[in-house]
UniProtKB/TrEMBL annotation:
Domain free text: The NBD (nonamer binding) DNA-binding domain mediates the specific binding to the nonamer RSS motif by forming a tightly interwoven homodimer that binds and synapses 2 nonamer elements, with each NBD making contact with both DNA molecules. Each RSS is composed of well-conserved heptamer (consensus 5'-CACAGTG-3') and nonamer (consensus 5'-ACAAAAACC-3') sequences separated by a spacer of either 12 bp or 23 bp.
Protein name per the record: V(D)J recombination-activating protein 1
One Pfam match: RAG1
DNA-binding region: 39-106
Amino acid sequence: IRCPVKECDEEILHGKYGQHLSSHKEMKDRELYSHINKGGRPRQHLLSLTRRAQKHRLRELKRQVKAFAEKEEGGDIKAVCMTLFLLALRAKNEHRQADELEAIMQGRGSGLHPAVCLAIRVNTFLSCSQYHKMYRTVKAVTGRQIFQPLHALRTAEKALLPGYHPFEWKPPLKNVSTNTEVGIIDGLSGLTLSIDDYPVDTIAKRFRYDVALVCALKDMEEEILEGLKAKNLDDYLNGPFTVVVKESCDGMGDVSEKHGSGPAVPEKAVRFSFTVMNIAIACGNESKRIFEEVKPNSELCCKPLCLMLA
């Protein structure tokens, strides 16, 4: 056979043709020439065959893979085949398909974790209804549930709210209830009213300060550990830590428009919150900072203390 590659034109024996062709690395269409059919029916593509015919054609390869798996991988044929498939996909730069397959192999599915979806919703300032619309559209168009439904996001959100993590103060705090349950209360309870002319009715969801602080620190666990590691302070895992907190209160505007239906009421939503500004650790006589909030005025690092409708 004469080699079809430009500037080669070498004549090769039929038996050695495939071996010669593999030396032309730059040739992309070499598959067109490599399988030579000696008459008879044209060879059908492997994927267009019936399952029985596929088994028949691949029986020799299957036997070799089985022998390899038993010798090297404890008999796990599936892992060997999956890995071969992944390598073939990546070799052809089909990384998206490879990533999806890898996710399915590891039992993750191709969907995003609810906490990741929550982060996307918060960081892109999507309302619940806007997010739900996107979730439905993506599911309908792709046929796969890549984003998680709203109820999964709400469950993930509970881990970020005070009262989720169990903790214990040593020594115990005096005159502080051990109850971390959060109920709907009058947001101004305990305050002496100074506005006699305009009495304000409020309902609020108020969190205990220490419960909120524990939740905030638990949420920042990774940053604290990274800070300790960066300053070679792994021996100081038990503290004592000094936590500097900035308290803030922000009106969230007139919420009467946001109900959808019902009468227009002149309600204001108010959020009392705090931000962890920095965390330091006492090493001997000096104090070393292991965390500092880079965007202290961002609403994304505000931790809720009291959510109130006035």
